[in-house]
Amino acid sequence: MDELALLRRQLERERAARKQAEQIAEQKTREIYYINQELRQLNNHLEEMVELRTAELAKAHDEAIQASLIKSQFLANMSHELRTPLNAIIGYSEMLTEDAKTLNDPMFVDDLDKINRAGKQLLTLINDILDLSKIETGRMDVYMEPVDVSMLIQDVLVTVRPLIEQGGNTIELACEPGQLVTDVTKLRQVLINLLGNAAKFTKDGLVKLEARRETRDGTEGYAFRVEDSGIGMTPEQVERLFQPFVQADSSTTRSYGGTGLGLAISRSFCEMLGGGIGVESEHGAGSVFVCWLPQGLLPEQEELRSRMSAGSAPRQPVSILLIDDEHTTLELLRRYLASAGWTTAFAESGAEGLRLARELRPEVICLDILMPSMDGWAVLSAIKNDPELKDIPVVILSMTSDRQLGYSLGAAEIVSKPVGREQLIGIMDKYIALHDNAPVLVVEDDATTSEMMARMLHKEGYAVTRAGNGLEALERIEYQQPQLILLDLMMPKMDGFQFLRELHRREGWRDIPVIVVTAKSVTPEERLRLHGYVHEVMQKGSFDRDRLLTEIRRAHSASASEPAGPSPEEKGMH
Amino acid sequence: MKGVVFTSFIEMVEQKFSLEIADRVITGAQLPSGGSYTSVGTYDYREMLALVGQLSAATGLAEGALVRVFGEYLFRELVAMHPEFLQRNQGVFAFLEKVDSYIHVEVRKLYPDAELPRFESGYVDEATFYMEYRSSRPFADLAEGLIHGAIHYYGESIEVRREALDGEAPTAARFVLCRGRDARG
Amino acid sequence: MRTILLVEDNEMNRDMLTRRLQRRGYAVRSADNGADGVEMAERERPDLILMDMSLPVLDGWEAARRLKAGEATRPIPLVALTAHAMASDRERALEAGCDEYETKPIDFGRLMAKLETLLDK
Lengths: 574, 185, 121
Fold this sequence. Notes:
Chain A: Its EC number is 2.7.13.3. Chain A is an alpha/beta fold. In chain A, 54% of the residues lie in helices and 17% in strands. In chain A, helix 1 packs antiparallel against helix 2 and helix 10 runs parallel beside helix 11. The relative contact order of chain C is 0.16.
C-alpha cells in the first residue's frame, strides 16, 4: 500500500514534469515562430531597400550619363561661342592693319598689330584648353590617314617661319621622304608646338628640324627632331616640362609668354597615336625635342589585319562582331577584346552590321541598342529572323534597361554600358565554345547536383552524358569515351573509389582525366588513394562554379594537347 | 538552476538509495515545484539545497560528501548528453580549460539569462593545473565532484587539492590539480 | 572683274570677308542662308562660291550638293568654310563636291592663294 502510494506520487511528479516540459516546448516554438516572422519582415524590408537602392543607382547612372552628354554639348557650344568673337577681333584688326598700311600710318599699324596678336594668343589659349578638356574626358578622336612627310614638313615650315625668323634665327631642314599613316592634324599641331617653342626660346640662333624613319621596338615609324640653340633648361625644369599649366618656371612665363599647355597636349597626342616625346636639354646650351610616331593603320587595314591574325592567335579562330555607332565605344571594346586574344570585326551601323554578320559568321555579335541610323532592336530582330544568323548569340550593350524586350527578341545576354573589361570577357567566354562539343561524363547519384553540373557544362559548350553510379558510368564509357569525367565519390552500387579502380584497369580509359567533385570530406589517406587516378579533387559546397570550370578547362586542354598520348581517334572514341 | 541537475539528482537518489528514500526526500523538502522537474526547465537553486539537506538527514551522510558524489554522477550524465565536447578534448586539463568557454556559451545560447558560475583556470607548470570556481551560489562541492568525474572519465592519475577562497564560504574555491602523483593517497 | 558669291550667316564674318575680298579687287555678292545662296548662284552665275557650312534654312552640305548637282552651277568652283578642324569634316566637304575647303578662323592669305589657284584654272 505504502509502495503503491509511493509509486503514485512518483507518477504524479512525472506527469507534472512532462506537462511542464510540453509547456516549455510550446513556448519555445512560439518564440521561434515570432522570430521567423520578424526575420521574414526584415528580409522583405531588405529586399525593398535593395530594390530602392538599385533604382537609385540606375537613376544616378542615367543622370551621370546625361551630365556627361551635357558637358560634351557645352564644350562643343563653348568652342563655337568663344571662337566667333575672336574671329571678328582677329579678322577686323588684320583688315584695319591693311587699311592703316595704305594710309601709311605706322602707329596705327603698330597698335592694330598688337590687337591682332593678342587675339591670336587668346585663340591659341582657347584651342589648347578645349583640346586638353577633350583629351581629359576621353573625347578626343583619332583620325588616321596617310601623309607625305616632306609635304607636311613644308606646310608646317610655312606657318612657323615668320615666328622663327622674328627672333633672328635661321632654320635648317633635313627630311627623309616617305609616307606616314597617322593623325595628320595632330602631328601638325605637335610640330608647330615644338617649333614654336624653339623659336620662342632662341634668339639669333639656329633651329633645326629633322624628319627621319626610325624603328622602335620592332615597329616602323618616323622620328621628328627639333633642335634649338636657345636658353635650354635645367634638369628640374625638364622634369616639370610636360605638366599642364606649368611652364619651366614662372619667370619664363613672364619673359616669354605662353601658357604651358602646348607640350602637355603634344605629349598626349603622341601617346594617343602610339608614340611619344622625349627631350634633352642643357641649361644655356639649347634643347632637343624628339617626337616619334609609329606607322599607323588605316581603319580598313586594321580590320584586315585582325581577320588575318585569326590564324596565328593562341586561341582558336574566333570572331566577335561589334555593332556600335559610337566610335569611341567601338575603339574601347575592340581594345578590351583584342587583349583577350579574340579577333574582332566592327560595324558602325545596323545595315553594315547585318552585312558583315552574313559575310563573317562571327561566333558572337555585340550589339548597341541605341543607334540613330538603325534602331538596335530592329537589328536584333533582323538577326533573329535570318535563318543564317539566328543561332549566333547576341550580347546587347545598352544604356536603356529594356531587358525584357531584349530577351524576348532573342538576346542571349544584356549588359549595361559602361561595360567593364572583365565583365565583357567573362560574358564572351560563356559563349565562345572553345570546347567544340567535347564529350564529358558526369557521374553523380544526386539528381539535382547532376542536373546542375550538366547544365553548367552544356552552356560551356561540352556535350554532357550522365550516370547515376559507377556501374552505369562504366557502361556509358563503353558506349562513348568521354574526354573528361566528373566523379562523385559516394554512390550506391559502385562508389567512386571502385569506379576508379575499374577505370584504371582498362588500357584506353586510364588516361581520361577525372575530376572528383564530392560532398564527403576527403581524408589524407583517401586523397592518397585517389592520387594518380584523378586530376583534381574538389569539395562540393566549397567549390565555386568558376573554379570548377577552370579546372575542367585545364584538365581538358592538358589532355587535348598531350603530344605523346594517343589521339582521341586512337583511343577508340567515336 | 537547470532542470537537468535536479532530474539527475533524483535519478541518482532512486538508483543509489531507493525509491522510498527519494520519495521521502522530495516530500520532506516541501518544494514549491512539488518535485516535478523536467530537464529543460529552470528551478530555484534553493530547492536543491533543500533536497540535499533532506537526503543528508535521511541517510546520515554529510551534505558536502553527498554533493561531491553527486558531482561525479552528474558528470557522467553530462558526458552521455554531450559526448562530442569530451571527444574534442584529449585530457582533463584541456577539458577543464574549455569549460568556461564551451559550456557556458552553449548554455547561454539557449538560456540567455542563465546565471552561471565563473571558472578561471591556468597552468602552474606542465603537470600542475589550477581551476577557480566563483559563484553566487554555494556549489563549490558540486564543482569538486564534477572535477573528479572528469578525472575518472579520462582515466588520468591526478591529485586534487582544494584551497579556500573568500574564507570558508562554499561559493568559491580553488582546486589545484597535480598530474603524475599518487592518486588519492 | 571677277565675282565671288559669299554665303555666310554671321554678319561680322560676312562683312569682314566682303570688305577684304573687295579690296583685293573682287566683286562680292552675299547671301545669309543656304537656300538663298543656291538660288543666287543659279541666277547670277558667280565666278566662285565661298560657303560657310553651317547655315540656316538650308544646311551648307545640302546646299553644296545641290550646287554640284545643278547643270549650271556645277562648274563654279566651290570653297567650303568649316568651323571645325576635324579631318572628317574635310572628307565630308570633298565628298559633298567642294573643290576646296578652309577652316575657321580663316587665314586670309592662305584663302587668297586657294582662290587664285581655282580661278586661274
